[in-house]
Amino acid sequence: MVAETPNPASQAADKRHRLLVVFERLLPLVDSVSDKVRFAVLLGLGLDAWIFIWLFFLKGTSLTSALIVAGVVLLPLLILLRFWWALEELKDLPTIAGRMLDDAQGEITETVQGIRAGQVQKLGFLSSAKSLWSIGSLAGEARELIGSYLSIGTLVNPFSLILGVLSLLFVLLLGVVGFLLLILAFF
After folding, report:
1. 142: closest CA among 87, 97, 109, 106?
2. DSSP secondary structure code for residue 122 in this structure
3. Which one of 5, 30, 102, 115 is most buried, by most CB atoms within 10 A?
4. Mind telling me which residue stretches traverse the membrane in this protein (predicted)?
5. CA-closest candidate to residue 149, choices 75, 93, 101
């Protein structure tokens, strides 16, 4: 038996296909979780405002005390907001990666064609400035991609995940407290 050598083009196409399958399965899940976390943050902000109003206006607590309580209640919401931000960045990852690949492939193709045609660019101020501009735009896109990967760190860090779950539970507790305060406001 003769072992067949794998074709690099077919391997690349297989990797792209697997990546697309992963993105197709991942993006609806990420979108759903992102929407739920955003709802929890908005609900928490509303309840935080209600608790501040109840403390300051209805109970006559000092402004400092009401602001301290509202600030402490806001901390878990900030953690959830960071999760929401990471999920939103993760949803844009396929677009950013595709743009980077298209730009890099276009630049490489243009450079190779120029070299084959014998068009070697002369060193000059304007061409250097144009090259620096191209490098800057590619670095900006790379920063977006790296930023998306850094947000993944928030989502996979066990300590961060525990804080996120505790923050969601806190929003549930905040809902119960807000409901009880609403009942107490009428009595």
Report:
1. 97
2. P
3. 30
4. 37-58, 65-85, 159-186
5. 93
Asked whether the beta carbons of 185 and 54 are under 8 A apart, the reply is yes
Ranges of H-type helices in the chain:
8-53, 63-91, 93-116, 125-156, 158-185
Give the span between the Cα atoms of 114 and 122, in whole angstroms: 12
Q: Find out whether 151 and 85 touch, Cβ atoms under 8 Å.
A: yes
Contact between 77 and 41 (Cβ < 8 Å): yes
Give the list of residues 6+ apart from residue 174 with CB closer than 8 angstroms, or none: 44, 47, 48, 51, 73
The helix/strand/coil state of 58 is helix
- Name the phi and psi angles at 129, rounded to 5: -65, -40
Token reading at 57: 């206006």
> What pTM value is reported for the model?
0.68
* Gap between the Cα atoms of 165 and 76, Å rounded: 10
Nearest by Cα to 164 from 155, 175, 172 = 155
CB-CB contact of 107 with 134 (8 Å): yes
Domain ranges of the chain: 27-95+127-185
CA distances for 22 relative to 4, 6, 64, 102, 123, angstroms: 28, 23, 50, 20, 45
User: C-alpha 186: how far from its chain's center?
Assistant: 42
Q: Which amino acid is at 43?
A: L
